[in-house]
């Protein structure tokens, strides 16, 4: 749990965000901090909500492929009453990523931060179903989880939120964003380059490496020796042309 006053931690998180942006960004965007400050200076929200919002806005200079919109109102179909035109909901923190034709929409709900939320589990369940039916990913965090996360920020100067990493992983996996990390995956690299990529075992040193399965001859990046890989029957080779294998 937190040892310091949560307002002190809010100030520390706010300074850390601006320091990061000022250090690594060539252009200073006052609008980013105006939005953040309008939220954390609003008495409508609890200190726990404000601290959590600042966690979600860590490292703005990374040019993230998503943004966070607090207290977003959305209008979605009600699967429990298809005769109605729709139902309005408020999302604690809506996170938008992806592209317009294939958006990634994440609804972050903070259970227990406001007392009334603890009393409506059945209502929350229906809300989650409606959101999921409308293509949203719903992630719920409890107040105890948020307190534990804030304690890590208090004790570690450059701590990167586990919540934030989890959310970014969800966005990257769902929207199939091309990054160095995704490029390291065989399916991404295959679609980008036209080759069929996979792991190839060097028979000389016994180590594996990512390589083009279309080629039989390879040079091992571990031992430096050249070798011919074993082509398995399960690879479904359709034909061979000019030394290149083509697959079904």
- Rg over C-alpha atoms, rounded to the nearest angstrom: 24 Å
Give the strand content: 25-35%
Figure out the total of helices.
8
Provide mean pLDDT, rounded.
86
> Major β-sheet, in short?
4 strands, mixed
Instruction: Enumerate the strands of the largest sheet in spatial order, edge to edge or round the barrel.
Output: 1-2-3-4
The end-to-end span amounts to 56 Å
Percent helix:
25-40%
Count of spatially separate domains: 2
**SSE-based structural type:** alpha+beta
How many DSSP-defined strands? 10
Short description:
The protein has helices spanning 6-24, 30-40, 47-56, 121-133, 143-155, 162-175, 180-183, 186-193; strands at residues 66-76, 87-99, 102-111, 136-142, 197-201, 208-212, 217-219, 226-228, 237-241, 244-247. The protein is α+β, with helices and mostly antiparallel strands and 248 residues long.
Can you describe what's shown?
By secondary structure, this protein is α+β, with helices and mostly antiparallel strands. It has helices at residues 6-24, 30-40, 47-56, 121-133, 143-155, 162-175, 180-183, 186-193, and strands spanning 66-76, 87-99, 102-111, 136-142, 197-201, 208-212, 217-219, 226-228, 237-241, 244-247. The protein has two domains: 6-177, no CATH class; 184-247, no CATH class. β7 (217-219) and β8 form a beta hairpin. The model has no long low-confidence stretch (mean pLDDT 86).
Distinctive features:
248 residues, alpha+beta, four-stranded mixed sheet, two-stranded antiparallel ribbon, 8 helices, 37% helix
